Amino acid sequence: MERIPFNKDELRIVGEYPVSKHGALPAKKYSTPIPPKENYLAVLQREIPLWIPIENDGASMFPGVNPDNHARGQVIEANSIPPDKITDFHDAFGVEWIYEFSVGGSMIKPGDPVLKDVNDWEKVIKFPDIDKWDWDAGKHANKEYIAKEERLAFLTISNGFFERLISFMDFQYAAMAMIDEDQKDAVHSLFSALCDLYEKIIVKYKEYYDPDIICFHDDWGSQRAPFFSLETAREMLVPYISRISESVHSNGMFLQLHSCGKNEMLVPAYIEASVDTWTGQIMNDKAMLYDKYGDKIILGVEPDIAPDINMSDEDAVAAAKRFVAKYAPEYDKKPVIANIFQAPKAYVETVYEDSRVFFN
């Protein structure tokens, strides 16, 4: 990438980007010398960028063509649908979800799981025929919307393997099935069938939306610990995440695993499955993960103080300077994303300016 000296005019705000999450504030558009997409792609390709990308340099789409996005209350595209306007919260498999406005997310309607024993899945679960989804209408509706976007384009597969198992069984039975010797073979066969489905969706997403990165959504932990051991993740999930990685990469895209929870002990599984990036939540020890695995996976890393949209400019600037001082020097070996959602303006601009100056 050509090195371009920093100019203060780059911090001039020239507009706003569309929101990538319901309830979020629009991200500011700056007068950058290249589009954020080009800069972000350089990081994914393991090149030195012009600046350290921040979370808002990417734009997420949740296309309405996929019923899972209606079920999750996240239809975000040219014709975005706010959750209170969605009329059908059934996912691609017909499972009913309930949107909880207080937390901004959905959960399956509890108490009556469609699957009691994974060994019965072939008799109970009916897979969707995605060729019947109106892909042409989705492409037509979003053609201009996609063309105007200058940020890295994320398309999300909303329900991964463990999340889908939960949707069929409820949480406690899904968690048990992952370690129950009488059900594990059936879990493997179900996950393999889900892989077949997700691989078809990945091809369709590439053909009709041409994203840069697929975000595969599969939460594996709680606020305090993972839902299962590293050994279980390796046995039950890595083979299928690896297939997703291969499909994504063979279609010319990158893979981000969205996996909430305190999952730091599962990061080796992400790496073994060839995941390109994991942003993770702030309760994870990112400093430890960066030191131990930063050369093997691109991490999203927060500032060293709790991020707060209302923090003072002085605190935001100081935190940003410490961030760049820590992560810029080894960026050629250990690239990171500045992972702070709805960041204070002073933090965003200081990370940008200081990394621009350092890299150029």
What secondary-structure arrangement, pairings included, does this model have?
Layout: E1 13-16, E2 28-30, H1 36-44, E3 58-61, H2 67-71, E4 97-100, E5 105-108, H3 121-124, H4 135-148, E6 152-157, H5 161-169, H6 171-177, H7 184-209, E7 213-217, H8 230-236, H9 238-250, E8 254-258, H10 267-272, E9 277-278, H11 286-293, E10 298-301, H12 313-327, E11 336-338, H13 345-359
Parallel strand pairs: 3-6, 6-7, 7-8, 9-10, 10-11
Antiparallel strand pairs: 1-2, 4-5
Helix pairs in contact: 5-6, 7-9, 12-13
CATH class: Alpha Beta
| Topology-level CATH name | TIM Barrel
- Helix percent band: 25-40%
Mean pLDDT across residues: 95
Uncertain residue segments? none
Find the structural class using helix and strand composition.
alpha/beta
Tell me the CATH architecture: Alpha-Beta Barrel
